[in-house]
Structure formats: C-alpha cells, structure tokens
Amino acid sequence: MAGFDKRVASYAEAMEGIEDGMTVLAGGFGLCGIPENLIAEIKRRGVKNLTVASNNCGVDGFGLGVLLEDRQISRIFASYVGENALFEQQMLNDEIEVILTPQGTLAEKMRAGGAGIPAFYTATGYGTPIGEGKEVREFNGRHYILEEALVGDFAIVKGWKADRYGNVVYRHTAQNFNPLAATAGKITVVEVEEIVEPGELEPSQIHTPGIYVDRIIQGTFEKRIEKRTVHG
C-alpha cells in the first residue's frame, strides 16, 4: 500500500514541475478555501506567463493577488474582479488578459474538463459580450452558446481533512470550487489542515476521491476574512 501514499514533505515538492506558460486551476471563493500556501510556493518559484482559472484573484497582497505583483499571470478566467485593486488596474491597462466568465459557467468548465467533456452548451451569456464569437445552437426554442471545458496542467486545492491516499473532505462553504478544480488537473495538489489515518474518513462523506489527487500536504493557514462587517 505504500505505493499509494500521496503525501509530500514540502511545498517545493508539492509544486515540483510547474513551469512558465502552464495553466493552473485554483479552488477557493474570495478568500474562503483558497490554497494559500501552494499559491505562495508558485510566487516563490517565480514562474511566469501563467493562465489561471479561479472564481477571482484574491485580494491585494494575499491569495492569487500575490502572483499579480510580479506579473506572473498573463491570462485569467474569472467571474469577479472583486476587491483587488491591482487586478483591476492591470485589467484596465491591458497588462493581463481577463476572460470574464459567469460563475456557473466557470464551475461547469472545470467540471466538464474533469469529466472528459470537451465542451457544453449553456444559455448563460447568449446575446451579451460573453457570447460574442461563440457557436450558437437552438434547443426547444431557446438559444445556447458553446463553452469549452477547462483542464489545467496543475490544479491547486484546499481541503479540510485527507488521508494519505488523497481522499479529501472539505469544510462547509470552503468546498466551493475546490472539488471541481480537483478533477480537472493533470497534476492535482491538495493542501489540508489535517491528514488522518486510513479508515478515519467516513466513505460516504468523502468529497474528492483519491483517484483524482496526485500529491497531498498538511499545512497551516492564515484564513483571512476578505471583508469584515461588524454590527454595533
């Protein structure tokens, strides 16, 4: 069974093989459930010209936002520019190609990529700039546009618990895009808060089966709050 042990000892080992020009799928939503240490390792390595697919690009100075500082991302599929001023600035200055993608479409692009489906039709975006230049079909009197699936050279994912074989459980809303991204990476790397012994995870509660996971690492996390709201 030792051959099925997917644990790695360092973040350098976890991201071994990432190179300039690769496509990276990243889980997370805002700052919830983001693979923050894997992102930090990408920054440390200094790889450039990356295509990234993620719901958004973190915030200034944290999450995927740190990759903007040294212009490591050249193109991003995202549904939200959000609270990141540097992301907005680079987009407006044409320093980064931003492919704004409806959130459900982005999720389905990852899911389809993981399922081996090369493209799918959706009504979302028809008749808007999102649909410009895309194939249109009519089904049952309604128009749909063709969207291509996404597959990454790497998928970077944040989980809650996992066993050494790569079976992963996510916690509450931190599930978000993570299980979708996990299926669609040629190399899928998952960082978790805790690695448990085999058999400790209830099989029916596993969100990402280990067959999708190539490397697993246990880390510690800052878990920032994107926007704190208080009620006085």
Automatic annotation (TrEMBL):
<protein>
    <submittedName>
        <fullName>CoA transferase subunit A</fullName>
    </submittedName>
</protein>
<dbReference type="InterPro" id="IPR012792">
    <property type="entry name" value="3-oxoacid_CoA-transf_A"/>
</dbReference>
<dbReference type="InterPro" id="IPR004163">
    <property type="entry name" value="CoA_transf_BS"/>
</dbReference>
<dbReference type="InterPro" id="IPR037171">
    <property type="entry name" value="NagB/RpiA_transferase-like"/>
</dbReference>
<keyword id="KW-0808">Transferase</keyword>
<dbReference type="InterPro" id="IPR004165">
    <property type="entry name" value="CoA_trans_fam_I"/>
</dbReference>
<dbReference type="GO" id="GO:0008410">
    <property type="term" value="F:CoA-transferase activity"/>
</dbReference>
<dbReference type="Pfam" id="PF01144">
    <property type="entry name" value="CoA_trans"/>
</dbReference>
<comment type="similarity">
    <text>Belongs to the 3-oxoacid CoA-transferase subunit A family.</text>
</comment>
